[in-house]
Specification:
The chain is of the alpha/beta class. 50% of the residues lie in helices and 12% in strands.
Length: 129
Amino acid sequence: MEHQRIIVDTSVWIEYFKNNQDYVPFIEDSLNLENILITGLIISELLHGIKSEKEYKLLLESISAVPYVECIYEDWVRTGEILYNLKKKGRAVPLTDVLISAIAIRYNASVLTLDKHFKNIARIKLITL
């Protein structure tokens, strides 16, 4: 039986690494089930927020076991389409959030996020805790 795939957005990873118990149990269970996927964009955002060399090494070690998904041409095209459709509706969503959504759509994955922008993106499955 295939498990639910989940892309954990940067906002939730930050809470996880702060040991926020609203997120730790769910993420650890999902990691044990190998349900979580990570993108290069999320890795970059997490590393950007690091304050020390020690944190940097710990973060890389922690996320190295999470299955990494590549961003491909199809994701960029879908990102452009989503942004275009949002613009027609007068909605602005950061490109980073739309790209994560495009990857989630391709992998039929849900997104766990604290970012309200994702609610504006059609076809994205959100997880709320």
